Amino acid sequence: WVQEEAPDVLCLQETKCGVSAVPPEIRALPGLPHQFWASAEGRPGYSGVGLLAKTEPLNVTYGIGDPEHDADGRVVTAEFPSLFVVCAYVPNAGRGLVRLEPRLRFDAAFLEFLRRLDAQKPVLLCGDLNVAHAEIDLCHPRANRANPGFTPQEREGFTRLLAAGFVDSFRHLYPEARGAFTFWTYLGGARARNVGWRLDYAVVSQRLLGSLCDSKIRSTVAGSDHCPITALLAV
């Protein structure tokens, strides 16, 4: 699928492996020779992200400058001539919301990080943001109001991101699209029935909207409990 899609930049989340454990078939992906991996310090099999690029970035940074969160290997940022591309795997609030408070602290620190980038040049944020922003973004909103990914606090965090000058590219282009999900639990045949959540986003700085060509959910692509999304920008 990656070879057919032929992205300029490929962002991967929840890789669960360190640099030395990246499979050789990923290392050898045609057209993506510049690869940057972050993993959780001292926690093999936890979290992790990767950013793979066709052309070499001007600069690459890891984390968001917050010691509470950076050890988890959740963010890689690549600077290109016309924009920053941020690959992010946002923390899950956890069963019973046991990690809701750390998640909210991450949201606040991450927003400040994105604002600092946006002050320099436009931003494309790609990743598993672990929140369904609106009721239209999951199949059963009423039943999930107190569940991780759809609490009022997490949704408000995403609202604050939008208020800071960022745009959910898919909802900007397809404001009324229903059943547009990117995650389905493996339980109960949820994917076959499209009982899902939209947790994966391409978020852009407002001034990139003129360059936004499309934002797609590739729901037929198998291989994970999430499906890929694709952002198309003329930059």
Automatic annotation (TrEMBL):
Its main location: nucleus. Probably binds two magnesium or manganese ions per subunit. The active site is at Y89, D128 (proton donor/acceptor), H226 (proton acceptor). Its EC number is 3.1.11.2, 3.1.21.-. The record marks N130 as: Transition state stabilizer. It is found in: Nucleus; Cytoplasm; Mitochondrion. It comes from the Eukaryota. GO terms for cellular component: mitochondrion; nucleus. GO terms for biological process: base-excision repair. Coiled coil: none annotated. Its cofactor is Mn(2+); Mg(2+). GO terms for molecular function: DNA binding; DNA-(apurinic or apyrimidinic site) endonuclease activity; double-stranded DNA 3'-5' DNA exonuclease activity; lyase activity; metal ion binding; phosphoric diester hydrolase activity. The record marks H226 as: Interaction with DNA substrate. Initiates repair of AP sites in DNA by catalyzing hydrolytic incision of the phosphodiester backbone immediately adjacent to the damage, generating a single-strand break with 5'-deoxyribose phosphate and 3'-hydroxyl ends. This is DNA repair nuclease/redox regulator APEX1.
